[in-house]
Amino acid sequence: MNKGRGFRVYAFVYLAFLYAPIVLLPIFAFNDATIVSFPLTGFTTKWFVQMWNNAALGDAVRNSLIVAVSVSILATTLGVFAARATTRYRFPGQAGLLGMIMLPLVLPDIIIAVSLLVTILQLGISLTLKTIILGHTLIATPFTIAILNSAFQSLDRSLEEAAYDLGETKASTFRLIIMPLVMPGIISSLLIAFSISLDEYIIASFLGGTDNTLPLYIFSLFRFANQVPTVMALGTILAVLSVVLLTIAEYFRRRGIARAGGKDTGGFL
């Protein structure tokens, strides 16, 4: 009994430490003071208005959206190919190959960023949004594979075989039978990859060149004390957006497993 109580206390302290900074974001975002400290001086929405009228911030948001949408599409497409291949077929070196693909999950981002930077510069490629997309796709693809592997593994193989017996080709079976069944997993994968790319800083700072993304712009604002409340306002919006995206992704992940009649073994939320 005491052990159970101790674990609950530990869990509460851990979650409080983890989420307290996020809770403070909206508090200071609506505080009418340029200094982030207690006591609060009053309620205001001027920091959100200032954020909205910031042209440089608009450019950074646009760049981040271009990168995040591109990454979500590319990473999910690669994830579909990899998940389909590893769950449907068996071939020599499969485990080792999949392990190499999933390696960015355990490698520090700084190592990946430096390696990509050296390789890109040696190839004579200019650092632009395209190189950021390349780097973000590399680190987002393992997450999409993890999600889509679950979706493809829960498929009933008899449905695919029945389609072949009825005269469908492999391409039409994949398009008409398999894709609709794994679509919740694909949507979940798109949202997760989008969220990862939108929040990623290290890869973008190494591979972005002169192109600013949202995390880079947010970091640059901290050099100016009077811009910190604007960062708090922006952080509030990003925190809400991240929670919404993850919640939607988890909903579609669970829906896909239930639709295929599989057993849910845990997810993001």
Could you provide a short overview of the structure?
The protein is mainly alpha-helical and 269 residues long.
Write a structural description.
- The chain is 75% helix and 0% strand.
- With 269 residues, it is mainly α.
- Helix 3 (55-88) packs across helix 10.
- It is built from eleven helices and no strands.
- It starts with a helix and ends in a 10-residue tail after the last helix.
- It folds into two domains: 1-44, no CATH class; 56-259, MetI-like fold (Orthogonal Bundle).
- The longest helix has 34 residues, at 55-88.
- The model has no long low-confidence stretch (mean pLDDT 80).
- It has helices spanning 2-29, 46-52, 55-88, 94-101, 109-122, 129-153, 157-165, 170-199, 202-207, 214-221, 228-259.
Jot down its keywords.
single chain; 269 residues; mainly alpha; MetI-like fold; 0% strand; globular
Secondary-structure map with pairings?
Blueprint: H1 2-29, H2 46-52, H3 55-88, H4 94-101, H5 109-122, H6 129-153, H7 157-165, H8 170-199, H9 202-207, H10 214-221, H11 228-259
Helix pairs in contact: 1-11, 2-11, 3-6, 3-8, 3-10, 6-8, 7-8, 8-11
- Quaternary structure state of the chains depicted: single chain
| Overall strand count | 0
- Name of the CATH architecture of the largest domain: Orthogonal Bundle
Q: Evaluate the radius of gyration.
A: 22 Å
Query: Counting H and I runs of at least 4 residues, what is the number of helices?
Result: 11
